[in-house]
């Protein structure tokens, strides 16, 4: 009787002791360093809301990410994609909510989402989530990282910290040791797609307009016949870079700063022209249709 009572009690005590054992503390190491060139935020870029001052125009002009141990660059910051839309509350604390896109050295991309608190354009503490389809850098997925950010003018430097073992093993693995095929998608998952954009697509001089040179945003087309030119050009012919203007930022010296308005006007002129031409043609057809209907009703 006493033995049958003693054994369950002993097992219960051992189970309670094992369940109450403290978990090992996570060990974080400085893994990556990001150098990001931010765009200026004028006072008009803030929305005064009940929550405070909401950022609306704090974007990124470029930058890069490097390995903390070797200084090797592994990614470029994709310019003019994402930005900070955080809120500065009435106490002056900025609640960071930023998104950023990287282009990795293997051609893949990384989506970054960072939340945290700090002082605008001074410093901030972040926790960061990353997503990528890269096999080489798959260790970036499915975890949160800790980040500390500091500002030197428009330059935002982020130190990213994470578990040490998460970076050492995958970097040492070769592509041959990776699984040969991905698991089958869930029944409700959408079909896999491979939509990629290229860094060259963000340069400032697009393909020349297929419209005739006589037609621009300030004039009407001479006729409805448009000869389209061949746009199958390589990257060097397809895009041009104005003197003194960097298309990609790899270092602080390459930072382009604020672009003059004429660059944006030159880039948008062909598209404004195409839209205006389409509107003119639509108005012409509508006017002819209204005229025919008026004649029919008059009869």
Characterize this entry briefly.
This protein has 299 residues and is an alpha+beta fold.
Write up what this structure looks like.
The chain has 299 residues and is α+β, with helices and mostly antiparallel strands. It contains 4 helices and 12 strands; from the N terminus they run αββββββββββββααα. 17% of the residues are buried. About 30% of the residues have low confidence.
Descriptive key words:
299 residues, alpha+beta, Porin, 4 helices, 12 strands, signal
Number of E strands:
12
CATH architecture of the largest domain: Beta Barrel
What structural class is derived from the secondary structure elements?
A: alpha+beta
Molecular shape: elongated
Here the CATH topology of the largest domain equals Porin
Helix content: 10-25%
Query: So how many helices?
Result: 4
The end-to-end span amounts to: 112 Å
Rg calculated over all Cα atoms? 28 Å
Low-confidence stretches: 168-182, 185-259
Largest sheet data: 8 strands, antiparallel, barrel
Topology of helices and strands:
Elements: H1 2-19, E1 28-38, E2 46-49, E3 52-55, E4 60-67, E5 73-77, E6 83-84, E7 87-88, E8 94-104, E9 109-119, E10 123-132, E11 144-152, E12 155-163, H2 165-172, H3 235-238, H4 261-298
Antiparallel strand pairs: 1-4, 1-12, 2-3, 3-7, 4-5, 5-8, 6-8, 7-8, 8-9, 9-10, 10-11, 11-12
